[in-house]
């Protein structure tokens, strides 16, 4: 095998709570994560040049050098395993960048799992996830995928039952958000309402989508929503068209709504586009591991 193609799925945070701050500055979190069908496509090819890592992409707005997480992921694998030779990596970008959807992290995860298969290394996912945390807190989850609770700094993962059948409308407004600055601003807040993560998980485990939706929340909305009111506008449109819940993902600015009916999700998408709230909108499905 000289080439492999891997889907790199976006993620949303069905719940996001911050429970503390480590001495090294990393935030302790308690989150419920979900992979969705929106994905980048990562093609990895072996090259005759054993030391080469070469990136290409259909997108002109992402770096194609050592600063790209996909490049760092390939270098991590090369340093760890002598059998890994040179690779050319093409990133077909579909996930919006700087959107709270783990676009860079999921590309890195796809590179690690792809190289593992391409060079027939046989490394268990658990080992890849241990290596991946050095690249970023979301990368281990992106290797794991599906519906999961993420604790620690995001690397302590517990698999959950699949999300009950639904459609997910994802909207990325034109504004961009710095994750680092969002967490710093959160630290300055006096008080927030915290989501009921345990309650969410109980409802997921019995397949109660409505009950789960009532307990959802994202503490970072207290930072990002006041700065970017369009987030609230998008949420309102989604709820108007029957979303059982609508919320910001990660540090934002992307917003997602959970729908039991695809037609209602499409109607909400059309209204969001008509108002000019967001030009990047996707009707997706949850994805299992």
| Second-tier CATH architecture of the largest domain | 2-Layer Sandwich
Helix content: 25-40%
User: What is the C-level CATH assignment of the largest domain?
Assistant: Alpha Beta
Number of strands: 12
**General shape:** globular
pLDDT < 50 runs, ≥5 residues: none
N-to-C order of helices and strands: EEEHEHHHEEEHHHEHHEEHEE
Summarize the biggest pleated sheet.
8 strands, mixed
- Fraction in beta strands: 25-35%
Mean pLDDT: 96
By DSSP (H or I, 4+ residues per run), the number of helices equals 10
Rg, please? 19 Å
Number of domains: 2
Question: What is the terminal-to-terminal distance?
Answer: 24 Å
Structural class: alpha+beta
The CATH topology label of the largest domain is: Ribosomal Protein S5, domain 2
Explain this structure.
There is one protein chain. By secondary structure, the chain is an alpha+beta fold. The protein has two domains: 3-159, Ribosomal Protein S5, domain 2 (2-Layer Sandwich); 167-287, Alpha-Beta Plaits, CATH 3.30.70. 34% of the residues lie in helices and 29% in strands. The strands form two sheets. Strands 1, 2, 3, 4, 5, 6, 8 and 12 form an eight-stranded mixed β-sheet that branches. Strands 9-10-7-11 form a four-stranded antiparallel β-sheet. A hairpin with a 6-residue loop joins strand 9 (245-248) and strand 10 (255-259). The longest helix is centred in the middle third of the chain and has 16 residues, at 103-118. The chain is globular. It starts with a strand and ends with a strand. The model has no long low-confidence stretch (mean pLDDT 96).
């Amino acid at each position: 095998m000289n080439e492999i193609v891997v889907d790199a799925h976006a993620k949303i945070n069905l719940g996001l709570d911050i429970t503390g701050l480590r001495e090294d500055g990393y935030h302790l979190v308690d989150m419920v994560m979900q992979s969705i069908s929106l994905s980048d496509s990562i093609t990895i090819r072996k090259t005759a040049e054993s030391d080469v890592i070469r990136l290409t992409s259909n997108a002109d707005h992402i770096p194609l050098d050592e600063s790209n997480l996909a490049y760092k992921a390939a270098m991590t694998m090369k340093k760890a395993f002598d059998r890994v030779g040179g690779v050319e990596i093409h990133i077909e970008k579909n996930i919006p960048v700087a959107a709270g959807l783990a676009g860079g992290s999921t590309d890195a995860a796809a590179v690690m799992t792809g190289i593992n298969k391409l060079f027939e290394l046989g490394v268990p996912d658990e080992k890849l996830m241990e290596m991946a945390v050095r690249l970023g807190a979301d990368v281990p989850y992106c290797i794991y995928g599906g519906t999961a609770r993420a604790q620690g700094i995001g690397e302590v993962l517990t698999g959950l039952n699949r999300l009950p059948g639904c459609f997910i409308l994802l909207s990325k407004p034109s504004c961009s958000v710095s994750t680092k600055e969002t967490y710093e601003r959160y630290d300055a807040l006096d008080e927030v309402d915290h989501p009921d993560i345990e309650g969410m998980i109980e409802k997921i485990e019995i397949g109660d989508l409505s009950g789960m939706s009532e307990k959802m929340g994202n503490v970072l909305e207290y930072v990002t929503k006041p700065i970017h009111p369009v987030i609230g506008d998008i949420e309102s449109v989604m709820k108007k068209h029957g979303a059982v819940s609508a919320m910001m993902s990660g540090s934002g600015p992307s917003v997602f709504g959970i729908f039991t009916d695809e037609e209602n999700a499409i109607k909400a998408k059309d209204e969001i586009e008509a108002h000019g709230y967001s030009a990047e909108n996707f009707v997706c499905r949850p994805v299992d591991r």
